[in-house]
Amino acid sequence: MQYIPFNIPFVAAALLVGVALFIFLFKRNLIKIVMGVAILSSGVNLFLIALGYRAGGVAPIYTATPEGVMVLPVPQALTLTNIVITVSVIALMLTMVMYIYRHMGDIDAKKSRLLKG
Question: Does the predicted TM-score (pTM) go above 0.90?
Answer without folding.
Answer: no
